[in-house]
Design goal:
Elements: H1 3-13, E1 15-16, E2 19-22, E3 26-29, H2 40-56, H3 66-97, H4 107-122
Antiparallel strand pairs: 1-2, 2-3
């Protein structure tokens, strides 16, 4: 038995805090996708672009000031992202609670499936 064989046997058995020890790659965490962070500047740009495109295509005709409309659009977009982040947080907690049972499954696929099902249950459209 070489020293590498002894190292491989030790690593295959060891697990620490959700990290699996692989003989070639070492410790790698079981990571679920991280929440998408959108900056306020991006939300402002998106709301301005939406308003401009709606005006160009004559989809809206409003009496309100553009700044007020942009503010409302930005608030709706921000609320949507916040709700999606809350759903993702619930999914992460749920998958972390069942991490031992889902060890042989792809964590990314499990995350997506669980997120879709939880969002559908709550009536949230992804």
């Amino acid at each position: 038995m070489t020293s590498l064989d002894g190292l491989v046997k030790k690593r295959k058995v060891s697990t620490t805090c959700g990290r699996l020890l692989h003989p070639l790659y070492g410790a790698y965490p079981q990571i679920y996708p991280q929440a998408m962070k959108i900056k306020p500047e991006q939300v402002d740009r998106l709301s301005a672009l939406l308003l401009k495109r709606y005006r160009d295509k004559e989809l809206i005709d409003s009496k309100a000031v553009d700044a007020d409309i942009k503010t409302k659009i930005a608030a709706v977009i921000s609320a949507n992202f916040a709700e999606e982040e809350a759903i993702e947080g619930e999914v992460r907690q749920m998958l972390a609670a069942h991490a031992g049972a889902t060890r042989d499954m792809d964590p990314y696929k499990m995350f997506l499936i669980a997120k879709q099902k939880l969002a559908a249950k709550k009536g949230f459209i992804l």
